[in-house]
Structure formats: C-alpha cells, structure tokens
Amino acid sequence: MHIGRRDAHPLAAFACLAAATVLPGAASAFDCAKARTADEKAICATPEARAADDAMTKAFEALRAAAAPAQRASILEAQVRWIGQRGQACYDSKGDKFTGDKLSACLADASTARTKFLQGASEAGPGASTPMAPFFTIVKGGKGRADVDFEVVKFTAQPGGAQRAFNAAVDKLSEDITQPEADDPAADRYAFEAIMRVTYASPRLVSATVNAYQDSGGAHPNSYISHINVDLGAGKELSFADLADAKGQKAIDAKCLEQVRAARKEKMDGEGGGPDDLFDSDMAKNVAAATNALGAWGFDADKAVVDYSPYSVGSYAEGYYQCELPYAFLKPLAKPTFPLP
User: Fold this and answer.
1) pTM
2) How far, in Å, CA of 227 to CA of 299, rounded?
3) What's the CA gap between 58 and 219, in Å, rounded?
4) CB 3.0-4.6 Å disulfide test: which of 92, 176, 217, 317 passes with 186?
5) Is pLDDT above 60 for 336?
C-alpha cells in the first residue's frame, strides 16, 4: 500500500484546477481532450470515474464559495495537493500501480471519498446527529519552516463528551509538527501531512481514518495510519476493552495473525511468513499488541479494518499490513454494548 506517500508537488494539476474554479459551472477538474497523465486518462476512460470526478469538483466549488475569503486560498491549495496524490492508493501489495479499468475504478473511489470529505460527510452510514465539516491547515515550506498539509474533519458543535473527545484527538495530530533549526542541513525536507476520512458515521458511532506522513530530517520519512472512534451514545472515545473480552480478543488476534502472515508471504514471493521464520518469531506478539489498540481500527458499513503501519508488525521496508474483519465474523465476538454498524 502506498498510503501516505508524498509525490512531487502537482503544479500541472494546479493549472487545471485553477481554470476549473474560475469558469462558472465548470464540471470537471480538467479537460479530457487534454488528458496527459495515466491517472487523467484513466478517469476519462470510464463514465463512472468521470462522474465521480465531476461530483468532487462540484463539492470543492461549493465549499470554496461558501468559505470566508481568507480561507479560500488554503482550500484551493489543499485540493491541488490532493489531486496530485489522488492515485497514491492505486497500487497492489507488491507496489505495482493498477492499470486499465482497475485504475479507473480506484480513482473513482478516491474521488468519491474526497467528495464526502469536502462535504463533511461520512463515506458510509446514515451520518452523525451533530454536523461535521472539513478544516484545513496549509503552510508552504520555506527557509526554517516546515511544509504542513493537515486536512481533517471536526464536529462544528460539541454538545457532548464524544464530540469533544473526537475534536481533541484531531487537534492532537498537530502536536507532532516540529520546525527545523536554522542550521539543520535537512531543513528543506521538513514536512507534515495528515489527511482524514470519516469512513462511517451514525448517531451511535463515528469512525475516522487518518493517513499521516512526517519528515523531520531523519534517516527517512515515516508514514502511518491511525483511527479515531467515538461512541456518541456513551459520550466517549472507544478503546479495545469496549469492543471485546479476553475470549473475543484471542479469536480476533488469531484471525489477524493469519492474514498478516499470508500477506507477508506474498510480499516475499512465497518465502518466510511461517512460525520458523527468523523474521516472523515476534510477529504473533506484535500483531496482538497492535490489534489490541483501537487506534488501529477503522469501521465501515460491512466490516472493520485493522491497519498495521510500518514497524508495528514488521520491518520498515515491509510497509503496511491490514486485517479485514467482516461483521459476520466480528459481531459474535464483540460485546453487545459496542456500537457496531
């Protein structure tokens, strides 16, 4: 997975998007007759991908038109950056980019998710009872200044503890931002990114996913996926203890370990990934530790997903792993009080 990977700054996309925003009634972020990149051609190749792009552009235009004048530049800059990275998740587990209809479908899904974000809506579920809206913190990097791209969703009102807890968790993301010292030779590399999606929302549960990237001048940048889950009914941020007891935890850990081992074996072209593998010796312990933190869990309409960021269950070079738990499997193991969709 290439979630959180930063590409070159999308200057070409800026020209296309800027043109769309000044033309009244513009329906798309670019002209298919002028499509040049593989992503642009894939969007133009199917009606579904083109329609998803059109809907996203309209949502962007509506958000920017309704925003205060001082915020419009940040909204435009955020959308320009996002368009330049739209295809970053359209890769297989071996790092090869999708092609053909598969790429078109992946880009359509990305555009649809972005539309929901721009509307402050969830990708699945009936929606939260308290309104939510996108918020942007965009700072262009420069001498002695880190590049910052934070695009998050927050509750616009905080009538209860869950809304306050959710917004506090979102605000906490910015605590990792650091600025380079004047004599730091890596000062021009400092960059921090957090892109949020609300994957599910209902009057009981709000689940959000954050794809984050950090480069503070170290040996290499770091990326990770985290989640924020709140129970609107109980008025709190949820923990794994709210989800399952010891018996359920054991079954969940075993299921996720099976999936991670299979994915690791595939990444290694069939080698390793077994209990006798030297690099696998701590995997069961690592998977259990990561799985038993609900900050690794995201919830959707039909399944839960556990995301394992680099270092959490394997080496940095191995990248991300994921465990999918359909609700048909998870619900019998979950506590009845946990607000599963």
Assistant:
1) 0.86
2) 9
3) 41
4) 217
5) yes
Section 161-173 average pLDDT: 97
Q: How would you classify the pairing of strands 297-299 and 303-308?
A: antiparallel
List the alpha helices (DSSP H) in the chain. 11-22, 38-45, 47-66, 69-84, 100-118, 161-172, 240-243, 246-267, 283-291, 327-330
> 218 is written with which tokens?
């170290």
Tell me which H or E stretch contains 153.
strand 147-155
Q: Do residues 122 and 205 make contact, with C-beta atoms less than 8 angstroms apart?
A: no
Separation CA 130–CA 180 (nearest Å): 39
d(CA 291, CA 249): 9
139 & 232 share domain: yes
Number of domains in the chain: 3
- 198, 132 Cβ separation under 8 angstroms: yes
Q: Of 87, 118, 149, which closes a domain?
A: 118
Look at the block and give the residue holding tokens 């399944």.
303
Tokens standing for residue 221? 């940048």
Q: Which domain holds residue 209?
A: 132-238
What is the SS3 assignment for 298? strand
Give a yes or no: residue 287 inside a domain. yes
State yes or no: pLDDT of 93 exceeds 80: no
